[in-house]
Structures are given as C-alpha cells and as structure tokens.
Design brief:
Helix 7 packs across helix 9. The strands form three sheets. The chain has a five-stranded parallel beta sheet, with helices on both faces. A four-stranded antiparallel beta sheet has the order 6-7-8-9, covered by helices on one side. It folds into two domains: 139 residues, Response regulator (Rossmann fold, 3-Layer(aba) Sandwich), CATH 3.40.50.2300; 95 residues, Winged helix-like DNA-binding domain superfamily/Winged helix DNA-binding domain (Arc Repressor Mutant, subunit A, Orthogonal Bundle), CATH 1.10.10.10. Helices cover 45% and strands 20% of the residues. Strand 4, helix 5 and strand 5 form a beta-alpha-beta unit. By secondary structure, it is of the alpha/beta class. It is elongated and about 55 Å long. The longest helix is centred in the middle third of the chain and has 20 residues.
Amino acid sequence: MAESIGAIRRTVRILVVEDEPSIAGFVRRGLHFEGYEVDVVADGPGALRVLRDTPPDLLVLDVMVPGVDGMEIARRVRAAEAAERLPAIPILMLTARDAIADRVTGLRAGADDYLVKPFDFDELLARIEALLRRAATATQQPASRETLQYADLNVDLGGRTVHRDGRGIHLTAREFDLVVLFLRHPEQVLPRATIMSRIWGDDFFGDSNVLEVFIANIRRALEADGERRLLQTVRGVGYVLRDSGGP
C-alpha cells in the first residue's frame, strides 16, 4: 500500500485555496515534502480561474476566502462537473467554524470532507490520502451501459444519469454512488457502517454526520416534485430503498 500511495503522490496535483499566509505556507511545505505538486491561491476569483483552466486532482478549500467564498466555489465546481459530465474533484474543506450547521452547509455545497482549524498536518495528510484512494477506485471502474431501476427511479450507470418518472435529477458524484448502492440492494436494510465502508472506505476520517447529510440531500433531489419517499430510515440500524406506496 505504501508503494501505491507513493506512486499516486508523484503525479497528484493539489490546489490549496487559503488566504492566511501562515496556514497556506504550512500546508504547502508539508505537501511538497510528501511529494505532491501544490498550487496555492489566496482568493476565490483566482481559485475559480485555476479550476477552470487547469483543474487539480484534489482541492483543499478554505471557507472564508475573499472574493468568492469556499461554499460558492464548491457549488460552482459541482455544477460544472454535472453540466459537462466531468469526474468529481475531491474537495476537503478547511474552516475555523466548528458548528454542526456549518459542516452540514459545506457538505451540501459539495465537499467530500471537512477539517476544522487548527488541525494537525498528519490528520490533513491522512484525509487527503483517503480521498485520493476513493477517487482512484472510482476512476478504475469500467464504464457500463447497465441501467438500474426501482419503482419510478432509473439510473444509467454509463451515462451517470438519474431520472425519476422521466424527470432528470442532478446528483453529485458521491450522491450518485449512494443511490447506486441502494439500487443494487433494493428492499434490503443497509447498516450505517456498511454504507460508510462501501462509499467512503474503511479509512474515512470525516464527521459522523456525513451520511445523514448526504441522505437528506438525495431525498430532497428525489422528492423535489412531491414524489413519495423511497429512501427510508430504519431507526438505530441504517437505511433501505423501499416503496411504501404512500406520499
């Protein structure tokens, strides 16, 4: 595993969006020492230009940057990926805000993980490696024209499109993976730990509230036109894709 991570590090380019020079320098030096290529941008407009012209392999994004804040940057990145059907860039958000509501907002904006300042560099590095491993696994999966269907929910795996009763539904890459997991196991209760392991991996370091946030996002998308709920909560266990037949 150490050898494969080393190979990844020699080719990975990370964009750090951080306006505090001490933190930006600390992160840049540490990642350079670990063998990553690192670009640092101190404001939102500059970050958007880099993301447009030379997209990185991973984005370390501070929430409170001038010009365009990190939440809006994440939203724009995810919207562009969806519109152009591009692979999702892993996003790790950095922030001094430690309230649960702020973490939820960041995850809903499109972040994959969330790290509160001040942080230890080893934890930052571990989270980056976990996100890169997950991204590498996703890109290695062969393209398929297989479709999955349950009730009025349809997913085209090759095209990575989701429809409900003919209505197109926009999901982030991680939300799409979650929907596919449930569609492969319809009417089977999936424990929370199983879902986290299958979608985020055994080495996920993120907040314990991450899964609930993503489930809520998926429900909003699937029920935007008043459709009945398909993704059900099994209290104390996990979640299940089940058609109750009600609203």
